[in-house]
Design brief:
Number of helices: 11
Order of helices and strands: EEEHEHEHEHEHEHEEEEEHHHHEEEH
Largest sheet: 6 strands, parallel
Distance between the termini: 64 Å
Shape: globular
Number of strands: 16
Helix content: 40-55%
Strand content: 15-25%
Radius of gyration: 23 Å
Length: 355
């Protein structure tokens, strides 16, 4: 509908017709978040629904999955989403049914899992959580879009992603990823603090391997912008002992440090990392490298067919492992160690699935 304003002169009434600019909104996409009544989801849902993940012109329809005893809590979350009055949120479906939750979904954040508690080893999580991701993989295979992008956040994330993919054979393996972006963000933040620069000025720090204490945070190819020029982080820091010891250990143990302080696992930072991961997968990375747990093709001497974190770039929704990086003797040892753990986790998970 045109808007008009009149301006009167001595002998005429001039009318200017202003046609409003019409912006065609994209068709809504369906996005599922599991563990939707939990802590991470509480921070994540607003980011998804506000446009921070899929873009400022992409409407979303949220499917919220949790277990039946959490439906009352989930109803409160649904009320809060309504109260946010978010223009891009076109609908919300709370459910305890995996098949209902994954129906026609284009993006999945698999957050729901038994939480890690203080003093708990990752192997303690494996048995209970593998069964959850087997069931969800089967539901994805049956009812989701075949181009669905799946991000596994619930731990042990790498192996849960492997199991989920195994039980969704009609979905390409490359469409299942595990989140190591939280580790990357932690590493980037640590380096920025050490260098005394804004975190945005540090890029291409890499997380290799498992989202566990065997992960290898690698600054050897990272660059920092100093005085308008990009410089190698190792040269600027000029402290190999820090980069191969203190830095690595701090990032590896950061999750445990948060648990010790909060008495709960990382939630706000995990939600931010999940948003970062999915945004880059959908919208691209440009010239930045990002760390994603993806199915290994054996690159850099890693075990094949485990979900291993690599540096990747993303273009048109497709990730590609960064090639040609030099692996030092120290890095080789670290990659072999985390690869061994992932191979063992994979076998343990397969054994659980047989029970």
């Amino acid at each position: 509908m045109a808007c008009c304003w009149g301006s009167k002169t001595e002998d005429s009434l001039e009318t200017t017709i202003i046609e409003p600019k019409l912006v065609a909104m994209a068709a809504p996409i369906k996005v599922v978040v599991t563990g939707a009544a939990g802590q991470i989801a509480y921070s994540l849902l607003y980011q998804i629904a506000s446009g921070a993940v899929f873009g400022p012109e992409q409407p979303v329809y949220l499917h919220l999955l949790d277990i039946a005893p959490m439906m009352g809590v989930l109803e409160g979350v649904v009320m809060e989403l309504a109260d946010c009055a978010l223009p891009l949120l076109v609908g919300v479906l709370p459910t305890a049914s995996p098949e209902e939750a994954f129906k026609d979904v284009a993006a999945a954040f698999l957050v729901g899992a038994m939480p890690r508690k203080e003093g708990m080893e990752r192997k303690d999580l494996l048995s209970a959580n593998v069964r959850i991701f087997k069931e969800q993989g089967q539901a994805i295979d049956k009812v989701a879009r075949k181009d669905i992008k799946v991000l596994v956040v619930g731990n042990p994330a790498n192996t849960n992603a492997f199991i989920c993919s195994k039980y969704a054979p009609s979905i390409p393996k490359e469409n299942f990823t595990a989140m190591t972006r939280l580790d990357q963000n932690r590493a980037q933040s640590q380096l920025a603090a050490k260098l005394g620069v804004p975190v945005k000025d540090v890029k291409n720090v890499v997380i290799w391997g498992n989202h566990s204490s065997t992960q290898f945070p690698d600054a050897s190819n990272a660059v920092v912008t100093v005085g308008g020029a990009q410089k190698p982080v190792p040269a600027v820091i000029n402290d190999n002992e820090y980069l191969t010891n203190t830095f690595v250990s701090t990032v590896q143990k950061r999750g445990a440090a948060v648990i010790a302080a909060r008495k709960m696992s990382s939630a706000l930072s995990a939600a931010k990392a999940a948003s970062d991961h999915m945004r880059d997968w959908f919208l691209g990375t440009g010239d930045r490298w990002v760390s994603m747990g993806v199915v290994s093709d054996g690159s850099y001497g890693t075990p094949k067919d485990v979900v291993f974190s690599f540096p990747v770039t993303v273009n048109n929704g497709k990730w590609k492992i960064v090639e040609g990086l030099t692996i030092s003797d120290f890095a080789r040892k670290m990659l072999d160690n985390t690869g061994k753990e992932l191979a063992e986790e994979k076998q343990d998970a397969l054994d659980v699935c047989k029970d």
